[in-house]
Specification:
Shape: globular
Oligomer: single chain
Helix content: 55-70%
Structural class: mainly alpha
Radius of gyration: 26 Å
Number of helices: 17
Largest sheet: 3 strands, mixed
Length: 392
């Protein structure tokens, strides 16, 4: 069995750029053909966000992190999927989920995650993992044949042979999972090494995992679940424990990079158009604790009308009477900051009517219809307002 990878206490330098890469051998060529076909389907998928400006910005952050020479081989696709994820295929297809863009707060944080994915690509991890898994399962196939022969030749030893085969199974599968986790650690180390050699602040990469743990804990707390153990690792875990990742990424960040710019202002500006959409998708996940953590995290730089509105939507969606009282307050704060936010008046009106404040609710709905007379639900909302009060 392969020995576990042991990492030094310093981030390695990024490997020398080897130029445009082409697949080598039957296995890799097969992977690339499969990925090429998958990318054709992805390019036509309705889940892809077709915003050239946003896509170009994400590609720019990748280039800023790994270097212009390396990133030229990558095609970026932003997928409208509210979970925290990104992945990179062996042929250079980078998939970035909108849930990742919602959760990171700066170019440096995004660059760390993209650099991690690029590390998988540069080290050909998919191919290595495939070959490792194939070798292991080939060994098990031969062991099955030999065990059958041994049982037939010596029936009284059947139990001992079965136990030995079971031990071999655990060993092989354990090695496959461990190999995958070691690859994740190597990709983390490459991600931080790219950041260390970039113009971005490398300490931000560890913050991504600190925030992820805080969000997970907030989600579990609201659901009444036990606090997650971020140091524990399951036998079949595909990634190292989150606490371990946050720890070694903080240690490996170059101290001289601590004073660099994170690009937080540029990131907020680039995401401004899509933030309401991504927040709405997040709220629909029905993860109250996680969603509130994200909204409050975004509000650390100041509450905006959009964030108050999103919080109102979150509470109104859960729908307890106490939630509706809070939702009405949040919508009111949104309308106080932006008197043209029609949807905030809609949420305010619906919340007020559900908690018995009918007159105030109808007034808010009337304002909604005035601001958005062509709304898709204008007829339905109009039925809640006395006809003589509907503004034409």
């Amino acid at each position: 069995m392969a020995a576990p990878v042991v990492f030094a206490a310093s981030a390695p330098l990024p490997p020398p750029y080897a130029g445009i890469y082409q697949p080598q051998g039957v296995d890799e060529a097969g992977w690339w053909r499969e990925d090429d076909e998958s990318e054709r389907s992805l390019a036509a998928s309705p889940l892809v966000i077709r915003d050239e400006k946003l896509t170009a910005y994400v590609k720019k952050v990748l280039c800023k992190t790994v270097g212009n020479d390396r990133c030229n081989s990558v095609r970026v696709y932003i997928i409208r999927e509210p979970t925290f994820n990104a992945s990179m295929s062996p042929n250079g297809t980078l998939r970035v989920f909108s849930g990742l863009l919602l959760r990171v707060r700066s170019e440096a944080e995004l660059g760390g995650v993209l650099g991690h994915e690029f590390g998988h690509f540069e080290r050909r991890h998919t191919l290595q993992h495939f070959r490792s898994a194939r070798s292991g399962t080939d060994m098990l196939a031969w062991a099955t044949v030999l065990a059958s022969i041994a049982v037939a030749a010596s029936p009284h030893s059947a139990y001992a042979i079965r136990d030995n085969y079971h031990d071999l199974q655990l060993s092989v599968y354990g090695n496959i999972y461990r190999h995958g986790r070691d690859q994740e650690r190597e990709a983390d180390h490459l991600g931080i090494s790219y950041l260390n050699n970039s113009s971005l602040r490398p300490q931000a990469f560890s913050v991504v995992w600190q925030n992820f743990m805080a969000e997970t804990e907030a989600s579990a707390r609201v659901r009444g679940l036990q606090k997650p153990n971020f140091k524990a690792i399951a036998f079949t875990a595909s990634h190292p424990p989150d606490a371990e990742r946050a720890g070694y990424l903080a240690e490996l960040a170059a101290p001289e990079g601590a004073g660099r710019d994170e690009g937080a202002d540029r990131y907020r500006e680039a995401l401004a158009t899509w933030l309401p959409v991504f927040l709405d998708d997040q709220i629909k996940l029905n993860d109250f604790g996680g969603s509130e953590f994200i909204i409050e995290s975004l509000a650390q730089n100041g509450w905006t009308a959009g964030l108050w509105f999103a919080r109102g939507e979150l509470y109104r969606t859960r729908g307890n009477q106490r939630d509706l009282v809070n939702a009405a307050d949040f919508y009111s704060r949104a309308t106080a900051l932006d008197g043209s936010m029609a949807d905030a008046f809609r949420g305010l009106g619906l919340s007020l009517m559900k908690i018995g404040q009918r007159t105030e609710g109808q007034a808010a709905l009337k304002t909604y219809l005035k601001l958005k007379p062509d709304a898709g639900d204008a007829k339905l909302i109009g039925m809640m307002v006395p006809k003589e009060e509907v503004v034409k």
